[in-house]
Amino acid sequence: MDKIFYILSVATIICACMVIISKHPIRSILFLVATFFLISAHYILLNAQFLALVNIVVYAGAIMVLFLFVVMFLNLNKEVEAHKGVFSWFAAIVSGGSFFLIVIKALEQSKLLINDSPNHSIGLVENLGHVLYKEYLLPMEISSVLFFIAMIGVVLLNRKEKIVKEN
Amino acid sequence: MENSTPEIFSAIPLTYYILLSTALFVVGLIGVMTRKNIIIVFMCIEMMLNAANLMLTSTSAYYGNSGGQIMVFFTMAVAAAEVAVGLAIIVMVYKNLKTTHIDIFNKLKG
Questions:
Q1: Domain tally, chain B
Q2: What CATH class has A1-78?
Q3: Bigger pLDDT: B110 or B10?
Q4: Has residue B59 been placed in a domain?
Q5: Which of A8, A77, A141, B42 is deepest in the core (most CB within 10 A)?
Q6: ipTM, 2 dp
Q7: Nearest CA to CA, how far is A136 from chain B (Å)?
Q8: Domain ranges of chain A
Q9: Is the entire prediction scored with pTM above 0.80?
């Protein structure tokens, strides 16, 4: 079990680094899809099966296909993007590394109280569905309103463009 | 299947999951600060969201409390809506200005 976790973690970090290193947009999108699949594998390892499925369907299935579609639609394939300077990389790595160090030191000094006999089956589809529809029914319905508003927003954004062109 | 308790909870401490999700978050942060293509920056923001999701899921699984996983579900819903609107804005800006360079996007200030 340890080995699976370590292999998955190293693969996740490597794929995440390849996303920001690779210069081709489509290649970094594909690496991001791989990262999301590996995170889903982590969810399965944690026995959160519902989230693993939702992660694959929503992130790898819908969102990344949207990204891929937009990149192909905008025809960015040939355009080689100019990176920011070495100074920018230096500043980013220093600030990110210091954030990581802060978290490590905070974890060293904190005691995580672990529940001795937690309920390991909370992540299954049935149990999570019960919780979702009993205790969190109102937020669930509100999120559907949010999707509706997002749909209206997207349609409105593209409609404005047409009106401007006609005038 | 339901009664089997995974060994991961005894084999791997929760700290490792927190470190992993922090590392993913830092990689996303570095990407946001260094890349110039707005689409890549947007993808790095998605990666940071996923790091937060991983942290919430692992803590909820270790503590046996389903609130964290419900929170992750709503985060995914909000992320999907956000990506749809954000990509629509990017496509519109590209139609008008023919670029996805990130410095152009300060024209959104109006």
A1: 1
A2: mainly alpha
A3: B10
A4: yes
A5: B42
A6: 0.89
A7: 8
A8: 1-78, 124-167
A9: yes
